[in-house]
């Protein structure tokens, strides 16, 4: 009786069909439920009579209405008769499922309208074989809805959010839209049905998931994306989910791949077995668990390295700001020095100008005085020459002639000396050398690492003379020589950082140095450090060996 009742249950209200309509797709629907679907499509500007089509909630077939609307659809009289007989049989049998359901306390119905076609309906169907087919193959009824993508139906779980799978426990995205709304844009989703694999807004959720079976067993979670819900599908067989693992091709396959596909001769494994194997439940040297551990360790090292790099970046910012401030300070000092020197030179030029003009003015005054005297004598002589009276001419001519002769004889004395150097044309401002120095202004960097010249180095039984060269010889303030006994360690950097017996010779001004007091026949490691105000850099290590000292007995034996 319970199986028969499920066949006679409306997919919308989940009650026995009441005044069922026979849809063109052979499924059935209560008249009131169909009316509710049409009402859900209406809006304030769209009357009910304007709705000309809706989708079958079971197979999503588009039902086209004529001008009569729902009255234009045929009544399923046969189904109604079966329901009437079923109800009579249920009343006569007190232990029937229908009677038991009636004895249960009534549940609060949902009052919201349906805003689209029912997605993920499992228990409902039309009369006869069509309804059973829809229930047994839910995947076939999930392709034509305009908003719900891949709404494959599976066995429904609890209605609560407990025991979520990892694929479901995803970060909530507030921008996930309802996949069931037919309005544009769709409303924001409030829940995602894991069973239906569809996200619903509050209105569509209440319309599609009433508090009745089978929807009470649907699992509702916070809205998640489709990619977190859909299972992995086979690459070769559409809509077939993978359920086994091909060991030959090392890939996921479905059952059809093993039965009729190219993997039918291959060795396969179950997903659980392969999962356990990769999860290091199997003792293998190279497993996912071991690789993951190594990767986590590497990530930790990278994080530490990145932290150091970030710290260096911060230090770069601090040092850059310090150097920029120092640059401004130094340039301001240079500008101030130039300004002061400009004032000093300008004062010197003005003082020289005043002194030279004073001398020139004195010379001009002397010349003017001589010119006035000479002009007066010329005027007097010209007047004497014009005198026609012999007595008067003879009286003045002798005196004038003496004065003119005296003036002519001493003309060189009367004319003042003119110093041409007083014209200030031998003065020049030449800052070419200073300009070149200013053009060469740049920040000082640590010198390039010096290079130890092995071919120039010499040794005795207790001394080694080390020679080196440097490309930045003029920028190097001093050199520092470091050496220690070579122990055979090949990692020189580690040796340099860890050795406690390094001998240091500081403040070397030349490009060579002789170390005394060394052990005979011993190999040493030498570093040379070039130093200036900006920092220092080390040379590559050089291994040099002292000579073996010959004893007196050995010397006599060799001599003999």
Automatic annotation (TrEMBL):
<dbReference type="InterPro" id="IPR050617">
    <property type="entry name" value="E3_ligase_FN3/SPRY"/>
</dbReference>
<dbReference type="GO" id="GO:0035372">
    <property type="term" value="P:protein localization to microtubule"/>
</dbReference>
<feature type="compositionally biased region" description="Low complexity">
    <location>
        <begin position="131"/>
        <end position="143"/>
    </location>
</feature>
<feature type="domain" description="COS">
    <location>
        <begin position="385"/>
        <end position="444"/>
    </location>
</feature>
<dbReference type="Pfam" id="PF00041">
    <property type="entry name" value="fn3"/>
</dbReference>
<dbReference type="Pfam" id="PF00643">
    <property type="entry name" value="zf-B_box"/>
</dbReference>
<keyword id="KW-0479">Metal-binding</keyword>
<dbReference type="InterPro" id="IPR003961">
    <property type="entry name" value="FN3_dom"/>
</dbReference>
<dbReference type="GO" id="GO:0016740">
    <property type="term" value="F:transferase activity"/>
</dbReference>
<feature type="compositionally biased region" description="Low complexity">
    <location>
        <begin position="111"/>
        <end position="120"/>
    </location>
</feature>
<dbReference type="InterPro" id="IPR036116">
    <property type="entry name" value="FN3_sf"/>
</dbReference>
<dbReference type="InterPro" id="IPR013783">
    <property type="entry name" value="Ig-like_fold"/>
</dbReference>
<dbReference type="Pfam" id="PF22586">
    <property type="entry name" value="ANCHR-like_BBOX"/>
</dbReference>
<dbReference type="Pfam" id="PF13445">
    <property type="entry name" value="zf-RING_UBOX"/>
</dbReference>
<keyword id="KW-0963">Cytoplasm</keyword>
<keyword id="KW-0862">Zinc</keyword>
<dbReference type="InterPro" id="IPR047063">
    <property type="entry name" value="MID2_Bbox2_Zfn"/>
</dbReference>
<feature type="domain" description="B box-type">
    <location>
        <begin position="229"/>
        <end position="271"/>
    </location>
</feature>
<feature type="compositionally biased region" description="Low complexity">
    <location>
        <begin position="151"/>
        <end position="161"/>
    </location>
</feature>
<dbReference type="InterPro" id="IPR000315">
    <property type="entry name" value="Znf_B-box"/>
</dbReference>
<dbReference type="InterPro" id="IPR027370">
    <property type="entry name" value="Znf-RING_euk"/>
</dbReference>
<protein>
    <submittedName>
        <fullName>E3 ubiquitin-protein ligase MID2</fullName>
    </submittedName>
</protein>
<dbReference type="GO" id="GO:0005874">
    <property type="term" value="C:microtubule"/>
</dbReference>
<feature type="domain" description="RING-type">
    <location>
        <begin position="10"/>
        <end position="60"/>
    </location>
</feature>
<feature type="domain" description="Fibronectin type-III">
    <location>
        <begin position="446"/>
        <end position="553"/>
    </location>
</feature>
<keyword id="KW-0833">Ubl conjugation pathway</keyword>
<dbReference type="InterPro" id="IPR017907">
    <property type="entry name" value="Znf_RING_CS"/>
</dbReference>
<feature type="compositionally biased region" description="Gly residues">
    <location>
        <begin position="121"/>
        <end position="130"/>
    </location>
</feature>
<keyword id="KW-0863">Zinc-finger</keyword>
<dbReference type="Pfam" id="PF18568">
    <property type="entry name" value="COS"/>
</dbReference>
<dbReference type="GO" id="GO:0005737">
    <property type="term" value="C:cytoplasm"/>
</dbReference>
<dbReference type="GO" id="GO:0008270">
    <property type="term" value="F:zinc ion binding"/>
</dbReference>
<feature type="region of interest" description="Disordered">
    <location>
        <begin position="90"/>
        <end position="161"/>
    </location>
</feature>
<keyword id="KW-0493">Microtubule</keyword>
<dbReference type="InterPro" id="IPR013083">
    <property type="entry name" value="Znf_RING/FYVE/PHD"/>
</dbReference>
<dbReference type="InterPro" id="IPR017903">
    <property type="entry name" value="COS_domain"/>
</dbReference>
<dbReference type="InterPro" id="IPR040859">
    <property type="entry name" value="Midline-1_COS"/>
</dbReference>
<keyword id="KW-0175">Coiled coil</keyword>
<keyword id="KW-0808">Transferase</keyword>
<feature type="coiled-coil region">
    <location>
        <begin position="292"/>
        <end position="319"/>
    </location>
</feature>
<dbReference type="GO" id="GO:0008017">
    <property type="term" value="F:microtubule binding"/>
</dbReference>
<dbReference type="InterPro" id="IPR003649">
    <property type="entry name" value="Bbox_C"/>
</dbReference>
């Amino acid at each position: 009786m319970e199986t028969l009742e499920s066949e006679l249950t409306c997919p919308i209200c989940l009650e026995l069909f009441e005044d069922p309509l026979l849809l063109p797709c052979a499924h059935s629907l209560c008249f009131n439920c169909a009316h509710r679907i049409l009402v859900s499509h209406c809006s304030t500007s769209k009357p009910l009579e304007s709705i000309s089509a809706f989708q079958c909630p079971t197979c999503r077939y588009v039902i086209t209405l004529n001008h009569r609307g729902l009255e234009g659809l045929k009544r399923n009289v046969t189904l109604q008769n079966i329901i009437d007989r079923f109800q009579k049989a249920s009343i006569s049998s007190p232990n029937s499922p229908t009677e038991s359901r009636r004895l249960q306390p009534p549940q609060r119905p949902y009052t919201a309208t349906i805003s689209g076609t029912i997605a993920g309906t499992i228990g409902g169907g039309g009369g006869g074989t069509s309804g059973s087919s829809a229930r047994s193959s839910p995947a076939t009824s999930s392709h034509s809805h305009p908003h719900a993508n891949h709404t494959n139906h599976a066995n429904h779980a609890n209605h609560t959010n407990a025991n979520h799978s990892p694929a479901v426990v995803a970060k909530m995205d507030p921008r996930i839209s309802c996949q069931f709304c037919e309005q544009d844009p769709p409303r924001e989703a409030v829940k995602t049905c894991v069973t239906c694999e569809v996200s619903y807004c509050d209105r569509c959720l209440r319309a599609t998931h009433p508090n009745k079976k089978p929807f009470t067993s649907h699992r509702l979670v916070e809205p998640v994306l489709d990619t977190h819900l859909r299972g992995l599908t086979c690459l070769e067989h559409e809509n077939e989910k993978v359920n086994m693992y091909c060991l030959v091709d090392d890939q996921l396959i479905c059952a059809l791949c093993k039965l009729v596909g190219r993997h039918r001769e291959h060795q396969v494994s179950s997903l659980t077995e392969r999962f356990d194997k990769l999860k290091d439940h199997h003792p293998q040297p190279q497993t996912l668990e071991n690789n993951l551990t190594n990767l986590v360790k590497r990530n930790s090292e990278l994080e530490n390295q990145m932290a150091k790099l970030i710290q260096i970046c911060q230090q770069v910012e601090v040092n850059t700001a310090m150097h920029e401030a120092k640059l401004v300070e130094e340039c301001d000092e240079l500008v101030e020095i130039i300004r002061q020197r400009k004032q000093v030179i300008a004062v010197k030029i003005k003082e020289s100008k005043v002194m030279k003009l004073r001398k020139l003015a004195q010379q001009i005054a002397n010349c003017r005085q001589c010119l006035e005297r000479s002009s007066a004598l010329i005027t007097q002589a010209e007047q004497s020459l014009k005198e026609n009276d012999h007595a008067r001419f003879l009286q003045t001519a002798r005196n004038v002639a003496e004065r003119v002769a005296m003036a002519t004889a001493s003309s060189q004395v009367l004319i003042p000396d003119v110093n041409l150097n007083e014209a200030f044309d031998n003065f020049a401002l030449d800052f070419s050398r200073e300009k070149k120095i200013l053009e060469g202004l740049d920040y000082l960097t640590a010198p390039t690492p010096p290079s130890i010249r092995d071919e120039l180095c010499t040794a005795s039984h207790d001394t080694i003379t080390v020679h080196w060269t440097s490309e930045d010889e003029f920028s190097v303030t001093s050199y520092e020589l470091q050496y220690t006994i070579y122990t055979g360690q090949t990692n020189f950097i580690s040796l340099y950082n860890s050795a406690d017996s390094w001998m240091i010779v500081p403040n070397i001004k030349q490009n060579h140095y002789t170390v005394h007091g060394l052990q005979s026949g011993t190999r040493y490691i030498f570093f040379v450090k070039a130093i200036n105000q900006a920092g220092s850099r080390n040379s590559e290590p050089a291994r040099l060996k002292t000579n073996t000292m010959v004893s007196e007995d050995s010397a006599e034996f060799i001599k003999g």
